[in-house]
Write a structure and sequence with these properties.
By secondary structure, the chain is α+β, with helices and mostly antiparallel strands. The chain has 2 domains: 184 residues, Ribosomal Protein S5, domain 2 (2-Layer Sandwich); 129 residues, Alpha-Beta Plaits, CATH 3.30.70.890. The protein is built from 10 helices and 11 strands. The strands form 2 sheets. Strands 1, 2, 3, 4, 5, 6 and 11 form a 7-stranded mixed β-sheet that branches. Strand 1 and strand 2 form a beta hairpin. It starts with 18 loop residues before the first strand and ends with a strand. 50% of the residues are buried.
């Protein structure tokens, strides 16, 4: 158990057979320039998950709506973290997890992270909050490894901590919550799938020093902009000279969406995670809605199906909705 136990108020463990329901929110990873180190939690959309405490050491996965989820816990983004969790618990305990999947896998808004984070937060609640938030991130990263082949926390951390998080380090794990200003977030999800593992494979393994320097400046500027609530600084720091130029070729209409949304008043934005979703930050709801209309117009003209969301930054993360 991690020493940072006091992050979550302790309580008595629940009885075997107890069930908890959680809302596991979508997230935006990278925040344009912060590849693998920055992430943001959203109020919508959410997965709904039900976790039941068992009296035997096993994990059961159930897809509530028939979505084709892997039922082998080791191959499931919710199951793999729970396997790691019960291996660190004394006695015979296990979990049955029922998943109502509302965040589409491959959408770029943290589908695998929602499953992983929702599972460990709900399970920890049933255990009387035995583990700290940092422990939960450590477990949930095994779900990301199932999804993409790589342990990363830029979706997991904001999903568990809420708000905006900086992952300063993975080894050792060092998560820094960043004050999140009151901004609106507009998301468009073109109905194509970009697998995280595929989107990582096309990236360059080396970058030019001049590009790295520019990227470091943008990351520092973005974090400072959030802390200082400096909207202009946030806007001009939302620039990626390393990842976005490569990944954007996988997303139809990306360049036009980004240009036209900024002209409609958005502070800026870019690819959400590995895509294909695109996010834009706005100072108020009317601007966010105007940005949504721009997105709709572009994809209607392209003839590509899409979903849009106008939401805000979720300061809580995974939420317990029923004991």
């Amino acid at each position: 158990m991690n020493e940072q136990q006091n992050e979550i108020p302790a309580q008595s463990p629940k009885d075997r057979g107890s069930i908890v329901k959680v809302l596991a929110p979508a997230t935006v990873a990278n925040l344009v320039c912060g590849f693998d180190v920055l992430g943001m939690c959203l109020h919508e959309p959410n997965d709904l998950m039900e976790i039941k405490l068992l009296d035997e050491k096993k994990i059961i996965i159930i897809s509530a709506d028939g979505y084709p989820l892997p039922l082998d816990p080791a191959q499931n983004t919710a199951g793999a973290p729970l396997v790691e969790m019960i291996n660190e618990m004394p006695g015979n305990i296990g979990f049955e997890v029922t998943i109502h999947k509302k965040i589409k896998p491959g959408s770029g808004i943290g589908s695998s992270a929602a499953s992983a984070a929702g599972a460990v937060v709900g399970a920890n609640h049933l255990l009387g909050n035995f583990f700290s938030k940092q422990d939960l991130v450590r477990f949930a990263m095994f779900g990301e490894k199932v999804a993409s082949g790589v342990k990363h926390a830029d979706n997991i951390a904001p999903c568990i901590y809420g708000g905006i998080t900086l992952i300063r380090s993975i080894h050792p794990l060092d998560i820094v919550p960043i004050p999140a200003p009151e901004l609106f977030v507009t998301i468009v999800h073109p109905q194509i799938e970009v697998r995280t593992s595929d989107a990582r494979q096309i990236l360059r393994k080396e970058v030019l020093l001049k590009d790295a320097i520019k990227q470091w400046g943008n990351i520092a500027g973005l974090v400072a902009g959030f802390i200082q609530n400096d909207l202009a600084l946030i806007g001009r720091s939302l620039e990626d000279v390393i990842i976005e130029p490569v990944r954007s070729i996988l997303i139809p209409g990306f360049d036009e969406v980004k240009l036209m949304c900024k002209q409609a008043g958005a502070l800026g934005g870019g690819i959400s995670g590995s895509g294909p979703s695109i996010f834009m930050l706005s100072k108020d709801e009317p601007t966010a809605i105007a940005v949504e209309n721009v997105m709709k117009e572009i994809y209607n003209r392209i003839g590509l199906d899409y979903h849009t969301y106008v939401t805000t930054i979720n300061q809580t993360g995974v939420t317990i909705i029923d004991n």
